[in-house]
Amino acid sequence: MLIIETGEIVPGADSFATAAELTVYAASFGASIPVDEVAQESLLRRAALQMASMPWQGGYVSGDQALAWPRRGVVRFGFHVPNDSIPAAIKQGQMALAAEIHADDLDPPEQRTGAVKQERVEGAVTVQYADPVAAVTTRQSAAQFAGYLGSSSQSRVVRA
Length: 160
Prior knowledge:
The relative contact order is 0.18. It is built from five helices and seven strands. It has one domain. α1 crosses α3 and α2 crosses α3. It starts with 18 loop residues before the first helix and ends with a strand. It is globular and about 65 Å long. A three-stranded antiparallel β-sheet has the order 4-3-7, with no helix packed on it. Strands 1-2 form a two-stranded antiparallel ribbon. Strands 5-6 form a two-stranded antiparallel sheet. The chain is an alpha+beta fold.
């Protein structure tokens, strides 16, 4: 059973979203996720863990919080983000990241080939593939996290 962080520094929190919310997200965006709720929860935990390593704006609200959010001193697109809430985009981003992790589990990036960039037929056949990562300009999670990461040109840290 997931323990959901609401912005109130929930002890032992391990996710921002529930498995039921992930199921709705996947259906809405056409993402593939496991049917099993335990596997869905595992993906959400893995996504939350990955999020802990991201260079978010601001700082932790409490030394007791288990996850990367909530945060203090965050401004997104000129608006102050309350330090006692989890922004919808953060929750959506976790679900997008969970679906991306599942896709990577099924089809590891290092085994993918990009689109055919060059193919030559004269005696021997030469085929050159594009970088598979370059084929996708951005992942859905990156779009959700826009403005919340410290490296964004649309974000800045505000000292309280």
